[in-house]
Amino acid sequence: MMLRFWDLISYFEDSALADNIRENDLLFPLIESVHVLSICLVVGSILAVDLRLLGLASINRPVSRVSNGILPLTWSAFAIAVASGGLLFISNAAASGTARRRIVHSAMGFGGHLRALDRIHHGGSLR
Amino acid sequence: MIDLGIGEFSKWLAATEVSHVIQTTTWIIPTLQTVHILCVAAVFSAAILVDLRIWRLIERDEPLPDMARRFLPTIWPVLLILLVTGSLLIVGEPRRSLLNSTFYLKMALLAVAILLTAGLQRSLSSSPNFWDRDRWRRMAGRFAATVSILVWCGILFAGRWIAYTQAG
Fold first, then answer.
1. What is the pLDDT of residues B121-142, one digit of tens each?
2. What residues of A are in the B interface, CB distance below 8 Å?
3. Do residues A72 and A42 touch, judged by C-beta distance below 8 A?
4. DSSP symbols for B151-166
5. How far apart, in whole angstroms, are the C-alpha atoms of residue A59 and residue A114?
6. Whole-model pTM?
7. A3, A47, A97, B60: which has the highest count of C-beta atoms within 10 A?
């Protein structure tokens, strides 16, 4: 079972797409910049919602309206972060470490985002 | 020539005590870069949220002036923090930025973004329906918001690209 998983990773890492990203001088920095940009939007937009939850910003606006207004952006940015991150992952062009380390990085990104959004959805009743 | 001046200044800066401490204390540069990018996330998101509201893609039920008032004012103090962390990063690694055309591109785009954002904030505080009065105003607003989004994205791209074009 574990053997299959690493085979899957290798399959993508050895693909023509991964080769292109690795070898093209423009493509990797471009995808990396998109990744940074989208993560900044995820972090920044969640910060805005978190500040509302903490009662530190936009306090004259109901929590649900704040989160409904901002979370669509968060999710869209997250989707772009995952897509760009996936491309970076399979290219393994930068010295981003072993596959295991890259998986931990990605898992933390996923986990952190999903946990934050879960808190927001269920913490909507917090004043 | 200007080139010679910057080169000499950069060399001088790299030889100072402050620069040496920043360079050799392992945690300083990563910490500065982390604070820097977190502040970038805050400023960038604030600007983008307002620009997306101008396009009526988010928060459609909230008037633009209210949206601007929620997010634009926070940009300025955070930009100040960015100035501090950015300056310290330059002091620590002068060659990386001062001898790098991408860095100057980033600064030029930042100047444009600051003017656009300040202009937007000013226009709405003096007359709340400034961008809503007629069809032309609305079109102009969407144009300004698009330019703003592109410029801010450009700043982030340039910021990342600095590492790729830095002098050896």
1. 999 988 888 998 899 999 999 9
2. 29, 32-33, 36-37, 39-41, 43-45, 47-48, 57-58, 61, 65, 69-70, 72-73
3. no
4. HHHHHHHHHHHHHHH-
5. 24
6. 0.88
7. A47
